[in-house]
Write a structure and sequence with these properties.
Elements: E1 8-10, E2 13-15, E3 19-21, H1 36-47, E4 52-59, E5 71-72, H2 79-91, E6 95-101, H3 123-127, E7 135-136, E8 152-153, H4 156-176, E9 180-185, H5 190-195, H6 210-227, E10 234-239, H7 250-262, E11 267-271, H8 288-298, E12 302-305, H9 311-319, E13 325-328, H10 330-334, H11 338-345, H12 361-367
Helix pairs in contact: 1-2, 2-4, 4-6, 6-7, 7-8
The chain binds flavin mononucleotide.
């Protein structure tokens, strides 16, 4: 019996298995609104058997978007198209989460598949083009010569507004019917910028010591938890390490996760990196040791992510207690049915996870003597 495909729960949320779709920016929204692209892109993972589908980094304010084409939840009108997606995900037996995000000084960057800001004047209104000066802990650009803009430093009122915006977005996520929200504190975006000495040069109570640099993430988490329904889990994604000798380290993340747990976070989504000068050893499962370190050090469930498409290894990670959930991003783009496929690979010979309209795959498998019929 596969542990990866056994049901589980987080707080009051029942999950059909431990597979998760990692948040993936689609750069396909206009004015933050979800559309048919998002519906189909996300819907296919629900059809594909995943347990939890976490929607992309969603701007809690317009200036918190990575690009003008990110999803947003800064106004009530943005709720309805997201609710449609959530309803479909639920109809397929999966749970729906959304990553609440502010990009800080990494905001207002070009859509990645364009070569810079190449939108024509004719295109700009149609795609919702906008370009703005970002905000950050300190007025230091993320990187020179790479389409980033020098930010302005947040003052006390600006910081208050960030917290309030996360709270307002969480309330809208609840109205949309999401089962969980994930606070995005990873990848060198705003909350990670506060955490990391690489970006936080403040001298007030939000800068300097680790305790001060953790303050904003903890305040956001506490404020979101206060409005997020008590029965619904709250996730936090962190870069467990900046992968940089002068940056945030694994031991810092263990302390942070302990504090997040006290504030009611239910799981830590364990990624890494996000600042210039980071080094990665991107082999299969390269971030699993981070998920294990946080799980062991803070006694909190973790999600492992990063090149985890091998079903056998994914099962082993859960069985060994290296992490509690297996998250896929690129692997799921490649195979949106990864979960149903992996379940067969791990020995299932029923077709339970295939949605009813697709169950006739079983007849094909029998005729071709493949998958569960290979040895029959
Ligand atoms: C197209 C794409 C968009 C992404 N957007 C986000 C995002 O919105 N938020 C986030 O935290 N990570 C984002 N990531 C990172 C993934 O969630 C994931 O952590 C990373 O790709 C490693 O997992 P993988 O090896 O399964 O792709 C994105 C990755 C991809 C490929």
């Amino acid at each position: 019996m596969s542990q990866l495909f056994s049901s589980t729960s987080l707080r009051g949320l029942a999950l059909r298995n431990r597979t998760v779709i990692a948040p993936m920016c689609q750069y396909s929204a206009v004015d933050g609104f979800a559309n048919d692209w998002h519906f189909v892109h996300l819907g296919r993972f629900a059809i594909g058997g995943f347990g939890l589908i976490i929607l992309e980094a969603t701007g809690v304010t317009p200036e918190g978007r990575i690009s003008y084409a990110d999803l947003g939840l800064w106004k009530d009108e943005q709720i309805a198209p997201l609710a449609r997606i959530v309803d479909f995900i639920h109809s397929q037996g999966a749970a729906a989460g959304i990553q609440l995000a502010h990009a800080g000084r990494k905001a207002s960057t070009p859509v990645p598949w364009r070569n810079g800001f190449t939108e024509t004047e004719e295109e700009k209104p149609r795609v919702g083009f906008e370009h703005w000066t970002p905000v950050a802990p300190s007025a230091e650009i993320h990187a020179e010569g790479k389409d980033f803009t020098k930010p302005t430093a947040l003052d006390a009122a600006g910081i208050r507004n960030i917290i309030d915006s996360f709270v307002a977005a969480a309330k809208r996520a609840e109205q949309a019917g999401f089962d969980t929200v994930e606070v995005h504190a990873a990848h060198g975006y705003l909350l990670n910028q506060f955490l990391s000495p690489l970006a936080n040069k403040r001298t007030d109570e939000y800068g300097g010591s680790r305790e001060n640099r953790m303050r904003l993430v903890l305040e956001v988490t506490e404020a979101v938890r206060a409005v997020w329904p008590a029965e619904k889990p709250l996730l936090v994604r962190i870069s467990v390490s900046d992968n940089h000798p002068e940056g945030w380290q694994v031991e810092d993340s263990v302390v942070l996760a302990q504090e997040l747990k006290k504030l009611g976070a239910d799981a830590i989504d364990c990624s890494s990196g996000g600042f210039e000068g980071a080094t990665f050893n991107t082999v299969a499962g390269y971030q699993v040791p981070f998920a294990k370190a946080v799980r062991d050090g803070a006694d909190i469930p973790t999600m492992a992510v990063g090149l985890l498409g091998d079903a056998g290894r994914a099962e082993e990670i859960i069985a060994n207690g290296e992490a509690d959930f297996i998250e896929l991003a690129r692997g799921a783009l490649d195979d949106p049915n990864w979960a149903v496929h992996a379940r067969h690979e791990l020995g299932a010979d029923d077709y339970e996870l295939w949605p009813n309209p697709t169950k006739r795959v079983r007849e094909r498998d029998r005729a071709l003597r493949q998958r569960s019929f290979a040895s029959k």
